[in-house]
Structure formats: C-alpha cells, structure tokens
Amino acid sequence: MLARQRTFPPLRPGWCSPSTAAACLLGIGLCTTAARADEKAQLRAYGEHLSSECTTCHRIDGGDSGIPSIIGLEERHFVEQLNAFKSGARTNQAMMSVARSLDGEQMAALAAYFSSLKPRK
User: Fold this and answer.
1) Number of H helices and number of E strands within the chain?
2) Can you give the C-alpha Rg of the chain in angstroms?
3) Rounded to the nearest 5°, which phi and psi values hold at 28?
4) What is the spatial distance between Cα 73 and Cα 107, in angstroms, rounded to a whole number?
5) What pTM was computed for the model?
6) DSSP conformation class of 11
C-alpha cells in the first residue's frame, strides 16, 4: 500500500504580510546563527579539553623554541596538517602518533580551539 503524502493548501494572498514573513525569516536566521555560535563554542571547549597533549610540546604563548607554534592557525590548515601526519604524507614520529589517535571531530575541535588563540606579545 502506498503511503499517502500530506499536501498543504497553497498560500493565499494576504495570508502572511511581507513584514511578517521578513520578521519570521530574520528570527529563524538569528536562531540559526545563535545555534551555530553555541556549537562553535562547544567545539572550542572540547578542543581545549583535548589540547593538553598538544601543549606538552607546542607552546601556548605562541613562542617557537624549535617546535612550531600552532596557535592562531586557520582551522582548515590545522586539520590539513594533522591529516598529512595521519596519512604519512608528513613525517614526524610524535605527530604521526598523535594524529593517528584523532578522529575528524577531535581534529576539528582542536583546530577551533587553537585558531581562537592569539599569540602573546
């Protein structure tokens, strides 16, 4: 038996004024933006939680004492570098081990956290 598809009546002129429609769309946009900001904040918090292994070697103040700084890096670049270590395209035994232990969500969380930090001057 075929499932019946629910149909909705067509909108009638005057059903929703343009200003009401605009207000609804603006409200939806604001809610969506707030939800994204909350998701981003949660992702950064998760990244901060995971960061202790990274900050064992990489300085949190942005200094470079032979180990490159990772703070302030663009998220996409950060994840690309981790994936390069994970695949073996870049070689460093410590980084390869760390990268291979991370899944995509963890990489994204670390990238969100470290990209949000600014070097101290």
Assistant:
1) 4, 0
2) 23
3) -65, -45
4) 13
5) 0.70
6) P
Secondary structure class of 6 (helix, strand, coil): coil
pLDDT given at position 61: 85
Q: List all residues 6 or more positions away from 94 whose beta carbon is below 8 Å from its beta carbon.
A: 57
The pair of three-digit structure tokens given for residue 21, joined into one six-digit string: 């429609």
What is the Cα–Cα distance from 96 to 60, expressed in whole angstroms?
20
Using CA atoms, how far apart are residues 49 and 5, in angstroms rounded to an integer? 47
Per the document, the length of the chain is 121
| DSSP code of residue 109 | H
Closest CA to 60 of 69, 50, 47, 48: 69
Q: CA separation (Å) from 49 to 21, 53, 96, 106?
A: 42, 10, 20, 10
Query: What residue ranges of the chain have pLDDT lower than 70?
Result: 1-35, 121
DSSP-based three-state secondary structure for 26: helix
